[in-house]
Amino acid sequence: MLGCGVKRKWSCLEELEVEAEQDGDEGGEDELLVGPSRSEMSRLQQRQVVLGLCLEKLQRYQVGMELSLRRSVLLINTLRQIQEDMRSDGVGTCSPDVHPDSCILRDDFREDMPVTCPGCAEGDGDNLSLSPPASPESPSQEANSPPDQQKPLPAATVSAFSDAVNAMGYLSDFALDDIFEDIDTSMYETSDLTSAWASGSLWPVSVSLWADEDVKMRPPAHSSPGSLQSCLMDLNELDHIMEILVKS
Amino acid sequence: MKCFSRYLPYLFRPPSTILSSTCHTEADIISTVEFNSSGELLATGDKGGRVVVFQREQESKSQPQRRGEYNVYSTFQSHEPEFDYLKSLEIEEKINKIKWLPQQNAAYFLLSTNDKTVKLWKISERDKRPEGYNLKDEDGRIKDPSTITSLRVPVLQPMDLMVEATARRVFSNAHTYHINSISVNSDLQTFISTDDLRVNLWNLEITDRSFNIVDIKPANMEELTEVITSAEFHPQQCHTFAYSSSKGSIRLCDMRQAALCDKHCKYFEEPEDPSTRSFFSEIISSISDVKFSHNGRYLMTRDYLTVKVWDLQMENKPLETYQVHDYLRGKLCSLYENDCIFDKFECVWNGSDSVIMTGSYNNFFRMFDRNTKRDVTLEASRENSKPRAILKPRKVCVGGKRRKDEISVDSLDFSKKILHTTWHPHENIIAVAATNNLYIFQDKVN
Question: Keyword Magnesium, does the record have it (chain B) (predicted)?
Answer without folding.
Answer: no
